Amino acid sequence: MATRHLCRSILLQSLYEWDFCRTKLNHEADLMAIIDRNMKDALPLIDEPEFVYRLAKNLVDHFAEIDKIIQKTAPEWPLDQINLIDRNVLRLGLSELLFGPKDEVPPKVAINEAVELAKTFGSESSSKFVNGVLGTIYRQLVEEGLIKEPEQKSEKATPSDSSPEATEKHDQAGTAGNEIPKDLPPDQK
């Protein structure tokens, strides 16, 4: 397991315990103390232990804002009705996506890591739910110009290449049949 993924897993488990204490047991718990305890056993396996603390600080600093964003993006799911794992995976993913340094963790990596945590720790539908919420927020950020979407390299088949693989690539590129390719300049259509 990659060291940063392990850090995220430890933070998620710590958030789960902290949130459980707050919401189910009705008593406050110290998130940093929980993280310290959970990090103890894993410390020899982690190259960058400060990463988990940076993530935790980032999340705590923006906690109320993150919860408001979740409520706005998934209004049919009140925050207290989202299960503990999904809620905290979303919090962790949003904290990295919105407030983390983009040069350290690119937005799509933050989303992918959150989805992987949901697959590992959540229910059968958790990863789809997390991906849907984070994907919606990502698209909004791109539309608003707050995140620049990376350029995609496309492999298009040349007209002379009629192998099944080339035909499939050609079809996936949106140029099957009589369709006009969307990416050609008007003078080449």
What does this entry look like structurally?
The protein has 189 residues and is mainly α. The protein has one domain (3-143): N-utilizing Substance Protein B Homolog, Chain A. The protein contains 8 helices and no strands. It starts with a helix and ends in a 17-residue tail after the last helix. The model is unreliable at 156-189 (pLDDT under 50).
Using the coordinates above, name the CATH class: Mainly Alpha
Share of helix among residues? 55-70%
CATH superfamily: NusB-like
Strand content: under 5%
CATH topology: N-utilizing Substance Protein B Homolog, Chain A
| SSE order, one letter for each helix or strand | HHHHHHHH
Number of DSSP strand runs: 0
Helix-strand category: mainly alpha
Radius of gyration: 21 Å
The total domain count is 1
Helical run tally: 8
Kindly state the mean pLDDT as a whole number? 82
Overall form: globular
**Unreliable sequence segments:** 156-189
- Assembly context of the chains: single chain
Q: What distance lies between the first and last C-alpha atoms, to the nearest angstrom?
A: 49 Å
| Overall CATH architecture | Orthogonal Bundle
**Major beta sheet summary:** none
